[in-house]
Each structure stands twice: as structure tokens, then as C-alpha cells.
Amino acid sequence: MVHEFGPEIDKRIRRYLKPSNDSWRTDETYIKVKGQWKYLYRAVDSMGKTIDFMLSENRDMPAAKRFFTKALSSPHNQLPRVITLDKNPAYPRAILELINEKGLPKETLIRQTKYLNNIVEQDHRFIKKITKPMLGFKSFLTAEQTLKGIEAMHMIRKGQAENNSSVPSAVEWLHIIFGIVA
After folding, report:
1. What is the 3-state secondary structure (H, E, C) of the chain?
2. Rounded Cα gap, residues 88 and 79, in angstroms
3. Total tally of structural domains belonging to the chain
């Protein structure tokens, strides 16, 4: 059921997301799909707000570039002033390619230090807490769709979705964006 509604929840909350700041923390974590590890690329800003996420079969430069392109295209994200990365060698090459293609400003600072990435590492915990009991996914598409729902609910819980009223719970907020009257 989650894999059916996950993409719809993700799509509907995107326009309500509060703007992120210009200091990005990027990392990837592992998700089991059909008994094999796949890569969930994630980025948060310096305040812990989710910038974007993407499930990928590979952990290489084209996948990193696709992730950054996706994150840069989200309307709630600012262009990054600084991007903090771990030691994955694919990230700097992808970022430099985006700078050369004018997808990123050339003033963008790239920092490769694992200690400043603690924010995104801690944020992985909430996603892993939900996906670990699932013992993996049966297909890549199901994993992708389910993760969209998990990430969307995580953004709502973190208070990233702007609501003009004082809605106390995520469930009530979902009722509002889906037009369900109680």
C-alpha cells in the first residue's frame, strides 16, 4: 500500500516544503533490494532539512551527478554555497562536471570531511529504522516508491512542510493535502 501512495504523498508535499539553506551535507546509505545492496543518496542542509534523495543501482559518478541534478531542480532548494561530502571520489567529479556545465556556480565550495556530515548520518537513522524491519525490497521500483513515502513522511515530521494552519499531526496534514474531510 505504501508503494502506491508514497509517490503521490511526495509529489503533493513538494510545493509546501520550506526553503532549504545553502549549506548542503551529502551522503549515501545502503538499502537491500532483491538481496543486493543499492544506494540511497541523500542530502540535508545544515539545519537537518531534507534537500533531496534518490535510490540508485550504482555508486559512481553518473549516479552522483543524477542525484545533484535532481536536488538542484527542486524548487524549495537554494543553490548551494558549500557542499560537504564524505570521501566518495565520485562526488567531486560529478560536482566539477556540473560546474563546467553551469549547473552549479563556480564559487561553490566543496568540503570533504566526514565530521561535518554527522547531520546527514544521523538523519539516515530514521530511514533505516523503518526500512530495516522490512528485510529488503522485492523490486527496485517498489523500493523507490516506498522510500518516496517514507522520506515524505519524515520531512513532514521534521516540520519541513509549511502549513498555514496549526495542524497538530502529520495524519491531519495529509488529510488536508489530499482534500479528505473528516
Report:
1. CHHHHHHHHHHHHHCCECCCCCEEEEEEEEEEECCEEEEEEEEEECCCCEEEEEEECCCCHHHHHHHHHHHHHCCCCCCCCEEEECCCCHHHHHHHHHHHCCCCCCCCEEEECCHHHHHHHHHHHHHHHHHHHHCCECCHHHHHHHHHHHHHHHHHHCCCECCCCCCCCHHHHHHHHHCCCC
2. 21
3. 1
| pTM of the model as a whole | 0.90
Angle made by CA atoms 157, 38, 21, in degrees to the nearest 5: 40
Question: Which range of residues forms the domain containing residue 37?
Answer: 2-178
Q: Which residues pair with 68 in a beta bridge?
A: none
**117 near 84, Cβ under 8 Å?**
yes
Taking residue 88's Cβ as centre, other Cβ atoms within 10 Å add up to: 19
Q: CB within 8 A of 157, min separation 6: which ones?
A: 170
Q: Residue 164 above 60 pLDDT?
A: no
CA distance 79 to 95: 12
CATH number at residue 27: 3.30.420.10
Q: How confident is the model over 6-51, as pLDDT tens digits?
A: 899 899 888 889 999 999 999 999 999 999 999 999 999 999 999 9
In order of 61, 98, 102, 112, the CA distances from 106 in angstroms are 19, 9, 8, 17
